[in-house]
User: Which sequence fits this backbone?
C-alpha cells in the first residue's frame, strides 16, 4: 500500500517482457499462443505490438526470420513450451543459415518441476544451441529486462542471426511493483552496448582499389548481406563509376535492377568463369557460388571479400578480406575511387563480351518465352506473370518463390527492379517458407502487393496459413504451379514400379487436379482455377487490382520441368 492507502500496481513477468520489447523497438510479433504464453501475447498487443497469430510455429518462425531481413530489426517468434519450441527451430535455423536477425521467445515448464516429467518439459536451451548465436533463460522476473535486451542486441549485431529467450512459467507469474519494473527497465536499457564501428585500414582499401584498377576482367558479386546492410546506393555508385559488370545472388537481385546495362546474370557462366578479380559483397562463397572454386571459377581468380564476419573471411581465405559493414566499406571505396577515378568503357573487351553474351542468352530465352504452350509448361505462365508484375511499376511487389522447377525457372524469368523484393528458399534451400514469407512481407511493407509463385509441393507445407491471410486481410496473391506432385508426379522407370505396394501412388505424387483454389474460398478468400493464357491473365488482373487474399491454381503439364529442378545431380 502507498502512503495514500492506494494499492500499488503490480507487473507480472508477461507484462514486463512486453514492456521490454516495446522499449527495444519491437512493434510486431509472430507466433502461436497457448500454455504458458497466451497472457504474454495479450499484454504485448495491449502495449501496441501487433501480434500475427499462425496455425503452425514453423510458418510463424519463417515469417519472423524474413521480417528480420526485410526490416533490419529482429523478427520475434513466440511459442509455447516443448513441442512449440521444437517447431520453432525451423525458423531459428533458417535465420541462422541466412544470417537474418530473429529472436524466439518460448515459455517453459515451472523450474521446480524440471526433471520430474512436467507438462511439455524440455531442456530448451540445449535444444536451440545448434541454431543460435546466443540464448538465455530468465530464472527470475528481475532478469527479464536484461535478458530481453541481450537477445535483441545479439540478434542484430555483427553477422545477424537467431537468438533465444527462455521464460519459465513460474517467472511469467512472478510480480513486482510498477516502480520496480520501471527501475529494472531503465537500468537494463542504459547498460545496453552497441558494437564499435569497425574501420578498415587505409592500406587495405588502397590494396583493394589497386587490385580492381589493374584487373582486366573484374566482376562485382553481391548478396543478401548487402541487402540487409541497405547498401544499394553505394553499390550503384561503385558499379556506375567503375563500369564493372555485376552478378547478384538470387536474393541479391533487385539491389540494382535486373535490366541494368551492366547486369551479368544472363551471362553468369562467362562472368564467373573468366573474371580475374571478383569483389564479393555480402555474399558467401558457398554452394550458391560454387565455393569460389574451379571449374566454375577460374583457378587464377583473385577474390576480394567484403563481409561483416571475420570468421567468414578466415574460412574462405580470399586474396584480400575487408571486414566490416558492407555499406560503410563501399562508402570508403567510392570516396577513394572518386579522388582518382577509373572506368571500364562500353567498348572495353570484357564489357563487350559480357554484353554480347547477355544479349545472346536473353534473345534465346525470349524466343522460348514467346511460345504459347498449352497445357502449360513452366515458361508460358511465368512470362505472363512477369509481364503483369512489370506493368505495376513502383512500388514493385515483393516476390516470394519456392519449389524446385517453379523457383528455378522463376529466377531466370521474373525480373527484380527494387531492393529486398525477392524472397526464396535461400542459403539453406528451405521448402515450406512460402506463406510465412508472404505474411512477413505484407506486414513489413503494407504499401506493396505480395505475389507468391510456388510449386504445389512447396505450397503444401504451409497451405493452411491462407486462413491467416484472410483473417488479417493481407494483400497477398499466391500462384500455385500445380503439376500433381514433387517435381511433377510419377516419374518412375518401369523397373522401379514393383514390390507389394507398387499400386500405391509414387512417393512424388499428389492427388491429380487438386483444387488448391477452393482451400482459400473456405475462409472467404478468392480462388481461381486457370489453364489457359486468357484465364491466367484475367485472374492476375482481377486479383492484383483487388489486393485481397487470393490463390490462383495454375494447371501445369506434369511432365514439364525436371526432377529436382536444376539440382538433379544431387538426387
Assistant:
Amino acid at each position: 500500500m502507498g502512503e495514500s492507502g492506494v494499492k500499488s500496481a503490480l507487473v507480472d513477468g508477461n507484462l514486463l517482457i512486453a514492456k521490454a520489447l516495446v522499449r527495444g523497438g519491437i512493434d510486431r510479433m509472430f507466433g502461436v499462443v497457448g500454455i504458458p504464453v497466451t497472457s504474454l501475447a495479450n499484454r504485448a498487443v495491449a502495449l501496441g505490438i501487433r501480434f500475427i497469430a499462425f496455425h503452425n510455429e514453423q510458418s510463424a518462425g519463417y515469417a519472423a526470420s524474413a521480417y528480420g531481413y526485410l526490416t533490419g530489426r529482429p523478427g520475434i517468434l513466440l511459442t509455447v513450451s516443448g513441442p512449440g519450441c521444437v517447431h520453432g527451430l525451423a525458423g531459428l535455423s533458417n535465420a541462422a543459415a541466412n544470417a537474418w536477425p530473429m529472436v524466439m521467445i518460448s515459455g517453459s515448464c515451472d523450474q521446480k518441476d524440471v526433471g520430474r516429467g512436467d507438462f511439455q518439459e524440455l531442456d530448451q536451451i540445449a535444444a536451440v544451441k545448434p541454431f543460435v548465436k546466443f540464448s538465455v533463460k530468465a530464472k527470475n522476473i528481475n532478469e527479464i529486462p536484461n535478458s530481453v535486451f541481450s537477445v535483441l542486441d545479439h540478434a542484430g549485431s555483427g553477422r545477424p542471426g537467431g537468438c533465444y529467450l527462455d521464460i519459465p512459467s513460474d517467472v511469467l507469474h512472478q510480480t513486482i511493483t510498477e516502480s520496480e519494473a520501471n527501475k529494472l527497465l531503465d537500468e537494463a536499457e542504459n547498460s545496453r552496448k552497441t558494437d564499435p564501428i569497425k574501420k578498415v585500414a587505409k592500406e587495405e582499401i588502397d590494396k583493394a582499389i589497386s587490385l580492381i584498377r589493374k584487373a582486366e576482367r573484374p566482376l562485382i558479386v553481391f548478396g543478401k548481406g548487402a541487402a540487409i546492410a541497405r547498401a544499394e546506393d553505394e553499390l550503384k555508385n561503385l558499379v556506375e563509376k567503375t563500369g564493372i559488370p555485376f552478378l547478384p545472388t538470387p536474393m541479391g537481385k533487385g539491389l540494382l535492377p535486373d535490366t541494368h546495362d551492366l547486369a551479368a546474370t544472363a551471362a553468369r557462366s562467362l562472368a564467373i568463369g573468366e573474371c580475374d578479380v571478383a569483389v564479393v559483397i555480402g555474399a558467401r562463397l558457398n554452394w550458391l557460388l560454387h565455393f569460389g572454386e574451379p571449374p566454375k571459377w577460374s583457378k587464377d581468380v583473385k577474390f576480394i571479400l567484403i563481409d561483416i564476419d571475420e570468421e567468414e573471411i578466415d574460412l574462405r581465405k580470399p586474396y584480400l578480406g575487408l571486414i566490416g559493414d558492407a555499406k560503410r566499406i563501399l562508402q570508403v571505396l567510392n570516396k577513394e575511387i572518386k579522388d582518382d577515378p577509373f572506368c571500364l568503357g562500353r567498348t572495353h573487351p570484357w564489357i563487350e563480351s559480357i554484353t554480347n553474351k547477355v544479349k545472346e542468352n536473353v534473345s534465346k530465352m525470349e524466343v522460348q518465352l514467346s511460345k504459347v504452350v498449352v497445357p502449360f509448361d513452366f515458361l508460358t505462365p511465368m512470362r505472363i506473370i512477369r509481364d503483369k508484375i512489370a506493368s505495376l511499376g513502383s512500388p514493385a511487389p515483393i516476390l516470394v518463390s519456392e519449389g524446385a522447377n517453379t523457383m528455378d525457372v522463376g529466377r531466370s524469368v521474373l525480373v527484380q527492379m527494387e531492393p529486398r523484393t525477392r524472397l526464396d528458399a535461400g542459403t539453406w534451400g528451405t521448402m515450406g517458407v512460402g506463406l510465412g514469407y508472404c505474411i512477413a512481407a505484407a506486414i513489413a511493407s503494407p504499401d506493396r502487393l505480395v505475389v507468391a509463385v510456388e510449386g504445389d509441393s512447396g505450397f503444401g507445407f504451409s497451405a493452411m496459413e491462407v486462413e491467416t491471410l484472410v483473417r488479417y486481410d493481407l494483400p497477398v496473391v499466391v500462384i500455385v504451379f500445380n503439376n500433381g506432385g514433387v517435381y511433377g508426379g510419377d516419374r518412375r522407370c518401369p523397373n522401379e514400379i514393383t514390390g507389394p505396394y507398387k499400386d500405391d501412388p509414387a512417393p512424388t505424387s499428389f492427388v491429380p487436379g487438386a483444387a488448391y483454389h477452393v482451400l482459400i474460398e473456405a475462409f472467404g478468400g478468392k480462388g481461381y482455377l486457370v489453364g489457359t493464357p486468357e484465364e491466367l491473365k484475367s485472374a492476375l488482373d482481377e486479383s492484383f487490382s483487388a489486393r485481397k487474399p487470393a490463390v490462383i491454381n495454375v494447371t501445369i503439364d506434369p511432365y514439364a520441368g525436371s526432377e529436382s529442378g536444376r539440382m538433379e545431380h544431387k538426387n
In short: The chain has 22 helices and 19 strands. The longest helix spans residues 349-370. The mean pLDDT is 95.
